[in-house]
C-alpha cells in the first residue's frame, strides 16, 4: 500500500487519463511491504506454486480490483459501506479497518521492512556489527521523519511517490530478469501447510497484503481525483476506475509472479522474504545492487508510512472530536514504534487473526455492493445476514489462529470447513437468502440517505485530508 496523490490523473486524452490513473492505483496498492510475501510463496510452495499463486492473486489482486470497482459504483468508502449494515457496525468496522492498515500492522510492517531491506544490509556492507540497537534506532528515525512529513503536508511526498513508483517497478523488473535468467528452480519440498492446501494457503497469504481493506479506505480518493478533473458522469467514473483498476491489477500480478519466481530460485530461509530478496539482489546485481535496491525500498516505505499515518490521524481526529490530528498522528507513531521492535514475524502473528476476521466481512460487503448496483435500491437483509454469517465464521477462523480450536474442529467434522475458505459457501447462501427476502418484502431502503451529518463528515474528511497531504503547496 502506497500513498495516493490527488492529481495522479491529469487532464488529457482518455487513454492518458486511464494510464495515469492506473499507475496511481498501482502506487496506491504496491508498497514495499508487498515485496515480502511473494518470495516466501515461491520458496515454500515447491511444485504447488501455480496453485498457491492462484489463491494469492485472488485475494491480493482480484479482490482489491473488485473493491475499487465497488467503491466507484457506490461512491462510498468503508464508512459508507459499513453503514449499510447498521449504525453500530458502521462505526466499529471502519475503526477496525483503519487500525489494521494503520498503527496496528501496516505502518509497523513498512517500518520493519525498510530496516530489513535497507538499514541492515547497508550496515553489514559497511562492516558495522548489527546489534539489538539497530532496529530501535532505525524505527525511531524512520517514524520521526515520516511524522514530520505527515504533520506538515507538502509536495515532497507527492514528488517522491511520483518518481519512486516507476523507479521501484523498473528495479523489480531488472531484479526479476537477472534472478530468473541466472538461476534455476531450487528443488525444495513444499512446506507442510502449502502441501496440504496450496490454494487455501495462497488465499490466506493474500489477506496479509491488506489491499482489500486499503481499497475500501482509499478508493474514495481515486473518485475525488477524477471528479477534480471535471469528470462528473457516474458511468464515465466507473469506466475509468474499472479500466485503470485492470491496468493496476495486471502490473501487480506480473510483479507478484516475478517475485515468487525469485523466491523459488534463491537459496535461503523459506519463511523470510526479506532475506530471499537481499540474497537475490546481491547475487544478481552485486554490492551496488543491494545499495540501490535498499535506497528505493526505503523511499517506498517512507511515502507509504506518510500516507498511512495521515490516513489514520485524519480518520481518528474526525471521529473523536476532542483529539487533534497531530495528537493522533504522534500516538500512532508511538504505537508503531513499539510494535515494529517486535520484529516482522511477531507483527504478522499479531495481525493474522484480525485479517481472518475482517476479510470475510469486507469481501461480503463488497460483493453485496456490486449486487446492489443492479438492484432497484439498497439492500437490507442481504447486507446484514451476509455480514453476520461471514463475521461469525471469520471469528471461528480467528480463534483457531490464536489457539482456540474447538469451534473450528467442530465445523471441520462436517467435511466442508477449513479456516481459510470455509466461510465462503455459508455466506453465499446467507446473501442469496437475504436477497430473496429483500425482494419478497420490498425492502428498498437507502441507508446512505439517512446517514447522519457526522458520519458524512467522517467519509469526506478522511479523503479530503489525504488529498491535502498530497497536494498542499
From TrEMBL:
InterPro entries referenced in this protein's UniProt entry, alphabetically: Brnchd-chn_aa_trnsp_Livcs (IPR004685)
Annotated membrane topology: Multi-pass membrane protein
Domain of life: Bacteria
GO molecular function, one term: L-leucine transmembrane transporter activity
Compartments, as annotated in UniProt: Cell membrane
Keyword Iron-sulfur: no
GO biological process assignments: isoleucine transport; L-leucine transport
Family annotation (Pfam families): Branch_AA_trans
Family: Belongs to the branched chain amino acid transporter family.
Name of the protein in question: LIV-II
Organism, as annotated: Actinomyces slackii
